[in-house]
């Protein structure tokens, strides 16, 4: 199992022209995440995405260190990004090739240099996710659920050790949200899941409640979700 460590991490952002030169997006946070499935929950704008993005270097700490399996994200960014897959809320941002098969092929470019073998491997990936019939379709003609599944298939095809998913079910209908949720929770990889779906959070092994740029509760999902519900209802 993987290990994600945050050592006194602070994230600040400049606010050009704003009343204050810098805002704190994440207050000093120290975490040691070794559980298989870690949920990040909390209100809009609380800092969940920021926390999730720190894990693969999409957000850099202003101070402190993020370490994934012993690799400092700031120093070994490329190596970390090969081990840490990322799935966004809106899969469109990560589907960049004209057709479904080409998109999976792009994900596989580091693993298989030979074009034909890569296309074959891409077809196998699609088949294993039930997407074989869509191979030659434009990604823009897919439904939201198909697109999210394709984005996930592309990332998982690279066999990452950790998967970070930032609200991956938010745009999906109930059936697709359940399908993607079940898939994520069944992965062998360590999962960091930022989500507003508290039922999904409850099925994780650990939950962190983020509020106003700080982790305010951390522990068993049932307790953390109960705490969130109690505080959210005022
Ligand atoms: N680069 C930046 N510059 C200024 N402010 C930022 C920057 N990135 C994030 N923020 C702010 O930091 C706060 C936390 O944002 P973040 O996206 O991490 O929240 P979130 O919990 O994922 O929200 P949501 O549930 O709405 O997706 C928000 O107020 C956001 O506007």
TrEMBL record:
- Read off the SUPFAM superfamilies from this record: P-loop containing nucleoside triphosphate hydrolases
Residue ranges of every copy of the ABC transporter domain listed in the record: 4-234
Query: Which GO molecular function annotations are given, in alphabetical order?
Result: ATP binding
Q: Which UniProt keywords apply?
A: ATP-binding, Nucleotide-binding, Transport
Tell me the domain of life. Answer: Bacteria
The protein's matches in PROSITE patterns, at most eight in alphabetical order, are given as: ABC_TRANSPORTER_1, ABC_TRANSPORTER_2
Give TM regions: none
Q: Which Pfam families match?
A: ABC_tran
Q: Which InterPro entries match?
A: AAA+_ATPase, ABC_transporter-like_ATP-bd, ABC_transporter-like_CS, ABC_transpr_CbiO/EcfA_su, ECF_ABC_transporter_ATP-bd, P-loop_NTPase
Q: Which family does it belong to?
A: Belongs to the ABC transporter superfamily.
Concerning PANTHER family, the annotation shows: ENERGY-COUPLING FACTOR TRANSPORTER ATP-BINDING PROTEIN ECFA1 (PTHR43553:SF24), HEAVY METAL TRANSPORTER (PTHR43553)
* Name of the protein this chain belongs to: Energy-coupling factor ABC transporter ATP-binding protein
- Give the source species: Nocardioides ginsengisoli
């Amino acid at each position: 199992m993987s290990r994600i460590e945050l050592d006194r991490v602070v994230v600040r952002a400049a606010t050009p022209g704003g009343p204050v030169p810098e805002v704190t997006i994440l207050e000093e946070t120290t975490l040691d995440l070794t559980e298989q499935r870690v949920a990040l929950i909390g209100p809009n704008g609380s800092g969940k995405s920021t926390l999730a993005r720190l894990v693969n270097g999409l957000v850099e700490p202003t101070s402190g260190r993020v370490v994934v399996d012993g690799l400092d994200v700031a120093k070994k960014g490329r190596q970390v990004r090969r081990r840490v897959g990322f799935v966004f809320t809106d899969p469109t941002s990560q589907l960049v090739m004209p057709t479904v098969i080409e998109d999976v092929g792009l994900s596989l470019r580091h693993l298989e240099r030979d074009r034909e073998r890569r296309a074959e491997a891409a077809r196998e990936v699609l088949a294993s996710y039930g997407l074989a019939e869509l191979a030659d379709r434009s990604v823009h003609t897919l439904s939201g659920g198909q697109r999210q599944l394709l984005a996930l298939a592309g990332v998982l095809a690279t066999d990452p050790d950790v998967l970070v998913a930032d609200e991956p079910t938010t745009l999906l209908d109930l059936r697709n949200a359940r399908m993607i949720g079940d898939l994520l929770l069944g992965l062998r990889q360590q999962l960091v899941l930022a989500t507003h779906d508290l039922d999904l959070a409850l099925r994780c092994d650990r939950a962190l409640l983020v509020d106003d740029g700080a982790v305010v509760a951390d522990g068993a999902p049932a307790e953390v979700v109960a705490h969130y519900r109690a505080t959210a209802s005022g």
